[in-house]
From TrEMBL:
Entry superkingdom: Bacteria
Protein species of origin: Yoonia litorea
Keyword RNA-binding: no
NCBIfam families on file: ccmA (TIGR01189)
Annotated protein name in UniProt: Heme exporter protein A
Keywords: ATP-binding, Cytochrome c-type biogenesis, Membrane, Nucleotide-binding, Translocase, Transport
Lineage, uppermost ranks: Bacteria, Pseudomonadati, Pseudomonadota, Alphaproteobacteria, Rhodobacterales
Transport recorded as keyword: yes
Length: 204
């Protein structure tokens, strides 16, 4: 479902990873590994179409990609339920009946997004993925701020709902999510020794 062929991606005009190739079949995940700064975020953004690849090709079904970044993208002045309905409306999706329970948000459903703790915001941000119904997920450190219980909750959703229904996920993470997935170490794809380059805007 996802094919990545010879992709080179850059940050600040400087190539960070070169000639990355892999494919992920429907129902499977791939874990991206590598030290800080190797280019995991840059690669995920490139695969998601948020920035162009310098070289190479990325293919997956049109309009099926979704990127979840370090930022949660929550509307602070909307309640938890209103946030979920907002995302459902934007994507023309129906709110899954069990979405609050799936991400342990039922007790928080009437709380304003801006009053949630960091981990609660993250659970709400991840619940967006359960609402929008996109098949190919690019996830950048999805479990940051989550406690052990919430990590397992998210991993269960990923395995039992998203992957089990034929979805795909490419996940940059430094922790063990407890899901069965091959790992790709990006270290050998490093484009060049750390070079002096230009800067561009910070990623959120
Ligand atoms: N605003 C910027 N302008 C130019 N280069 C940047 C900018 N932000 C990051 N970089 C550089 O781009 C390279 C790739 O960064 P990237 O965030 O993709 O790595 P990462 O593997 O996701 O790191 P981490 O594990 O720390 O999140 C790094 O060398 C980093 O220093």
């Amino acid at each position: 479902m996802l094919t990545v062929s010879g992709v080179t991606c850059a940050r600040g005009g400087v190539p960070v990873l070169a000639d990355v190739s892999f494919s992920v079949e429907a129902g499977h995940a791939l874990i991206l590994r590598g030290p800080n700064g190797i280019g995991k975020t840059t690669l995920l953004r490139t695969l998601a179409g948020l920035q162009p690849a310098i070289e190479g090709e990325v293919s997956y079904p049109e309009d099926e990609g979704a990127y979840a970044s370090h930022a949660d993208g929550i509307k602070t002045a909307l309640t938890v339920t209103e946030n979920l309905k907002f995302w459902a409306d934007v994507h023309g999706a129906t709110l899954p009946g069990d979405i609050l329970e799936t991400f342990d948000l039922a007790d928080l459903k009437n709380r304003m997004g801006g009053t949630l703790s960091a981990g609660q915001k993250r659970r709400l941000g991840l619940a967006r993925l359960g609402v929008i119904g996109r098949k190919v997920l690019f996830l950048d450190e999805p479990t940051v701020s989550l406690d052990g219980f919430s990590v397992r909750l998210f991993a269960s959703w990923l395995q039992d709902k998203h992957l089990a229904s034929g979805g795909v996920a490419v996940i940059a993470t430094h922790i063990d999510l407890g899901i069965a997935a091959p790992e790709l170490d990006l270290t050998p794809f490093k484009a060049a020794p750390d070079a002096e380059g230009g800067a561009d805007e910070a990623f959120l």
